[in-house]
Amino acid sequence: MKLELRGITKKFGSLVANDHIDLVVEAGQVHCLLGENGAGKSTLMNVLYGLYDPTEGEILVDDKEVVFKNPGDAMAAGIGMVHQHFMLIPVFTVAENVALGNETTKAAGMLDLEATRKKIRQISEQYGFDVDPDAMVEDLPVGVQQRVEIIKALVRDAEILILDEPTAVLTPQETDELLEIIRQLKKDGKSIVFISHKLREVKAISDTITIIRRGKVVGSAEPSASPTELASAMVGHAVSLSLNKAPAQPGEVTFQVRNLTVIDQNGQHVVDDLSFDIAKGEVLAVAGVQGNGQTELTEAILGVQAHTSGSIKLDGQELLGKSVKDVLGSGVGFVPEDRNVDGLVGSFSIAENMVLDLYDKAPFASGIAMKPGVIAKQAQAKVEEFDVRTPSISTPASSLSGGNQQKVVLARELSRPLSLFIASQPTRGLDVGSIEFVHKRVIAERDHGTPVMIVSTELDEVVELADRIAVLYQGKLVSIVPPDTSRDVLGLMMAGLSVEDAEKQLTEQHSIDPSANGGSHV
């Protein structure tokens, strides 16, 4: 099935999210949409899937114009979409989830789940999905849940599949498995629209690449293009994809976590008896699939997790039980994973956001009175130092791009002497140029002698920044390993295997398949 978009424009008020986009996806083709978060990729696909009405333009399927008023229209035309955040009901079985919205009934109007089970088994066998129709979705690994989403589309006879950032929550092994599934779907004649900002995956799976920047198509590329060429096309200027850093020179261990446990409202141990150290002048990167205790770990250190036990010591002082203000006052710099919710006050100016945790301290205040002149001078200096692109320090933080918002948070947290620096998902949603800047600042803080903890679900980022890598799985510490540990071993550890078991499994796979080279395919 051939898909064509002509002049698709989508406006939200004065914001132009998609600007006269032309796109052709041929039958049996994997067509990658490459662009940074916020480039307009997902908006374009939501228009195609009937979730948004286009402001202008037309959609053609097999050279015939179609109008989709809702996702049902798109599905009826043979288009299926697997969203970045899965649309599954955890307490339902696979069959019940697949049947939703596409129910078949028996006599007396009873739901005919057996017919759905049969279709799931057929599709699972055809593509090697290995999905049990009667399994509860909440009990399935993330990678299998994604297969359920694909099955939902195939049961509805989708000939065009839209995969929106499909590897965002997968381990490297699950990513490899997904790419193999895509190859099988292509072989079967399906057309795939693969949306991503990850260069490895785009190069590995695409037949052709369309690059979107700020809502516009800025070019196309072949998968043979170098990562540097693709990255430069995404951001509009030359960038470096490698971080030149000197080996760490670890000093005294000044940050210690012992037997840290965090219990959530359901009584689950979301952080389970965690112990580790960080020395001055080193980066400990915490790796793992999102949802394995990383968020709760950083929040426990900051002092916002209520049901916490164990010990968190910085420079010999116990932090557990202290208020957030006291933790920050102890010399902890903290970049949260969601800058909009926890890092910035959007309606405040850049200058005001620069002193959110220092507004009542000298030199920014005298007694109960703030000093606007001093605050403005500090903000202007940091805007220049961190290259924050803004017309004025009086500009509300909400009006800045994601990259510039992150620079404001970094500027604030790195504007004072630190005893510990924690950054959670430090480059989420940033363009390649901003990522390069953030990584350099993190290493500069390390080289200044500060203990640094980075939490990231991006394995490339973990390997790039880490002096040691701590892998979490279901709230437990699997192990701490050096940064030259292979991606395949790290991926298996992120799925819960020990280092020894991961290496053993890879050795056995290699002996079965001598062509395997021990490295990730993506």
Automatic annotation (TrEMBL):
Residues 3-239, 255-499 form the ABC transporter domain. It comes from the Bacteria. CDD domains: ABC_Carb_Monos_I (cd03216), ABC_Carb_Monos_II (cd03215). One of its GO terms (molecular function) is ATP binding. Its main location: membrane. It is found in: Cell membrane. The keyword Membrane applies. InterPro entries: AAA+_ATPase (IPR003593), ABC_carbohydrate_import_ATPase (IPR050107), ABC_transporter-like_ATP-bd (IPR003439), ABC_transporter-like_CS (IPR017871), P-loop_NTPase (IPR027417). Keywords: ATP-binding, Cell membrane, Membrane, Nucleotide-binding, Repeat, Sugar transport, Translocase, Transport. It holds the Pfam family ABC_tran. Gene3D superfamilies: P-loop containing nucleotide triphosphate hydrolases. GO terms for cellular component: plasma membrane. It is a peripheral membrane protein. This is Simple sugar transport system ATP-binding protein. It comes from Psychromicrobium silvestre.
